[in-house]
């Protein structure tokens, strides 16, 4: 029987273990992990966590259960349910439920928590992570700045939180380096998963003259494809689905973060710390997707600039600015 299950079989996650022996070494068995997602696992951001954990299951050292589409009002209850069932590690994103998530961690000091958060670690068992992929986002901006004909780029985001803002700003900075005349249209749709709404926002930008769209949300690339425009991907590579639309993508790889947390839970050394750096290019947590179908369509000078900046980033000779403020249209 597979160790990967949906919420409906949550009872199979493990026996009730409120008195289990703390953050001790997990010896002689698989690490039991539960994840809580506020959106479907297919959504870009959480799909990266899901992918890394399913890879750990495939290695044979992890058991993994998850709940998806959990509302903020239900999040604390689900966290507690998993903790009570004896999970060794609980993974999730707490951007809308920070206080509740941290309270659960305090109430279950024998459980390790690895939570996506805008804030720092707390206590002894509440570690945090983030998608620090502003470096490849900058590189995709270089491509967009060099490819636009109208000098107007549309950008559709979910919410203007730091995790989104810094990627948008990095992209904009890259585009400006490649093209000093580029301008931007910026819209936030107020949802993490509403492809139709994102698509409509993108259509509005195309109607105003944008010929390249930054697809922070699902739905944007669909609009670009229908109108014959170009798109820049975020977090995942969707060029296979949009071979004539998606030019470049900034990718997030959660394996370095997840594997480190699993190893620490396994040997009993897990502590509250910030895992953010493990999402950078230096640690293999981020990368620029191959240009693929657009390899011979991007100007040679832009490709050379991207290659130079990428090498400088990896060598520590170029630092992408981190700006968490809300980006505006220009």
How does the helix and strand content classify structurally?
A: alpha/beta
Q: Which sheet architecture does the biggest sheet show? A: 6 strands, parallel
Poorly predicted parts: 1-22
| SSE succession | EEHEHEHEEHEHEHEHEEHEH
CATH class of the largest domain: Alpha Beta
Q: What is the count of β-strands?
A: 12
Helix coverage percent of residues? Answer: 25-40%
The CATH homologous superfamily of the largest domain is named Response regulator
Overall description:
The chain has two domains: 4-129, 3-Layer(aba) Sandwich (Rossmann fold); 134-252 and 286-314, 3-Layer(aba) Sandwich (Rossmann fold), CATH 3.40.50.2300. Mean pLDDT is 90; it is low at 1-22. It is 36% helix and 18% strand. It is built from nine helices and twelve strands. The chain has helices spanning 44-59, 72-84, 98-107, 134-147, 162-178, 195-207, 220-227, 255-267, 300-314, and strands at residues 4-5, 31-36, 62-67, 89-93, 112-116, 126-129, 152-157, 183-188, 212-215, 230-235, 246-252, 286-288.
Keywords:
Rossmann fold; 2 domains; 330 residues; 6-stranded mixed β-sheet; disordered N terminus; 6-stranded parallel β-sheet
